[in-house]
Amino acid sequence: MERKIEKGTNSKMNRRKRCILCSKDIDQSEYEDHVASCSNDNNIDNSYDDLQYSRNDSIISSTYSNSKTEQKKKCILCSELINEQEYEEHISICSYEQPNTTMQNKKISTQTNNKKRCRICSNSIPEYEYVKHVASCSSSSSSSSSSSMKNLNENDHRTRLNSIEKHDKNSSNMNTKRKDCIICFKPIDLSEYESHVLACVAQTDNQLSTSSTRTNLKCLTCNRPINKQDGLYREINCHSHHNHCLVCLQRSMEEFARNGQAPVCHKSLCDYEFSRYDISLIPLERRISDRLLKLVKGQQRPHCSKCRFYIDLTQCEDFDEHVESCDDLIPCEYCQLPYPFKQLEIHASECQHDKTSYNEKLTNFILNKTKYPFTKNQIRHFIDQQSKNSHSNMDPWSIIDALAIFGSIFPYEMATRDCDVCMESCPYDDIYVFDCSDNHKLCYSCYYESCKTKMNNGEILTCALCTNPLREGELNQLRISNDELKKIRDYQIKKTFDAYSSRTRGIIKCPNQNCLWIAEAADPNERFRVTCPICNKEFCSLCNQQYHYRTTCQQLPQITQRWFFWCQTERGRYLTMRAQQDTAYATQLSDYNRQNNENENRNRDLRRRYDELMNDEKYKADNCRLCPQCKRVVQRLEGCDSMVCGQDAHGGNLQSGCGAKFNWTQAQQYNAAATPQPKQVILDLPKPENPVVHHNGVKCDHCQNDVVGIRFDCVHCPSLTYCEKCEQQATLDHSRENQFLQQQQHVFKLIMVPQEEANQL
């Protein structure tokens, strides 16, 4: 603001202007430079304090004291008189004690109605609200300063705004260097803030509500302060980590020993029952210590404030050593259970291949981390009950805390039954019911022991109490590791294989040479589709080839040969003849020529299959004969003429067969169903001059119209039919699908005449 000049003064005074910071009269030409230098002299805070306003806020005092001559200054926050040399240090300290100062000012303001003018926005503020107003006003000083100086001329407005912005920048830099801790509320350097908070959280057991009370330790019994330095106190390993001075602790232990009561943390405030470990940490007389050790009943485990688990002292002898070495827990990426960093890598490598359910892993994890010791069956049952009431995944801490509420008594009654072998009472979930006629019931431990005993004796695995053989589904119920289960399954397959080798009944064996799966056939002469439960190979029960629908094993070679001829040469020849008689076939012929390369890729796979078929048919015609009962192809490798279908005459070399006995010389010679032909032609293709055949009632699975012309049925699919117009593209797509699934190419059966006419023939 400009100072008013009285009339009659020198004209040179009209060129001078009073500085808004130091209140000196400055030449107008030097005003901007003066204000800029004045704002950097650290006097910006002092200059506003020296401007004293009257109570009616109308007249500015004309007296001005130079900062160099003053001995003390009034703090703008607490209003105390501070020595000039200590003023800056006091301001930095006072700014962090602002909330307390505010309360003091409020108390003072109740006794006075004085007002102060804000040094930033120049508004008159009641003295009891001054500090709070300055704190809020400083954050928006830029916008406030610009609005408060609308009445100034342009030069004064720009100069004052720049000076205040520089001051606010310096103030904000000072304020952002430190930050109050959210736990202990102490001002901490920003560079050390994160590490300080983590350390503060660890010291207070992640309980922010009790952090202020734990700063000054007090005895739970006498409520007197405890000096950490002298060590004359004990921290009890209860969940709240109560502290007792040694005098009160020894006195209470003597009282427990005198009354013959089990020692606890506090008779009325904490029911934590002391363990033998807790008693050993208290300096007591030998007679009192021995008496207390006899009275100890508590099985409650001490609580670690770092990992927040209860520690089983049978596995960790020194609780203090555990607390010192307890690291941060990191969740496993597979089971999401927390493990120390040193154990995480080993656990993750095992957990990656472990197929155990999450609830079972959770049970094993918290078994030794509960407040009181419970059995594995009880913890498993408790987790199952909790999971029914919770829709989200349960973490181990929530289970442990929920179980700790009930103390040492398990909250649920578990339905039990006696094992038929060991006669021990077990929960129903731990009893396995066998699929035998008597439905014997064993606990899983006895079930596993029975399997190991029979394996050691070289016996086939059966029910522990009868001769009912165990199937793969029953073995999979064993609660053991995957590696151990695989050993038992392989053993059972081998023993079953050997048992069938000594019989003459029909069996079915997987044709995969690397698979040992074998099963007994209810009817060895019946043809049906078989899927191996071990390697998932699908095959025909009679010929061991890829299973074929709507055709016999003897017809399959000829159908395969005709399909190969059609894809190789006959499709193009047939479409060319049809296109000459009917222009409607010209489009199909054009598509066939355009997709010539894709057809060649498919024909390459068919050529390989066709060559194998021809070589196989020729070998069987030269070396094999047919079983007189099931018509399977059999071969005599060596020895006499006595034969058994499906195995050697004297046992061993088990294959699929009906088990019938016959003489090799009397068996029927195998005749090749397909023989190589010099010309790869289909002799019964429809001629162009003949009318097109209609297959009434048969729909094409591609165009959904009635099949007209040649009908194509896939013999390896349960139901798949195409007409001759859709066959070219549809069978090519079907071939791509088989290649993607890494399956053998399917064969289509060519049907030239309707089914009614075929039946009449």
TrEMBL record:
Q: Which residues form a coiled coil?
A: 589-616
Q: Which domain of life is it from?
A: Eukaryota
GO MF assignments:
transferase activity; zinc ion binding
| Keywords assigned | Coiled coil, Metal-binding, Repeat, Transferase, Ubl conjugation pathway, Zinc, Zinc-finger
Ranges annotated as biased composition (Low complexity): 139-148
The biological pathway it contributes to is: Protein modification; protein ubiquitination
Chain spans, region Disordered: 139-158
Residue stretches making up the RING-type domain: 415-680
InterPro entries in UniProt? IBR_dom (IPR002867), LUBAC_E3_Ligases (IPR051628), TRIAD_supradom (IPR044066), Znf_ZZ (IPR000433), Znf_ZZ_sf (IPR043145)
Q: Which Gene3D superfamilies match?
A: 3.30.60.90
UniProt xrefs under Pfam families? IBR (PF01485)
Record carries keyword rRNA-binding: no
**Name this protein carries in UniProt:** RING-type domain-containing protein
State the species of origin: Rotaria sordida
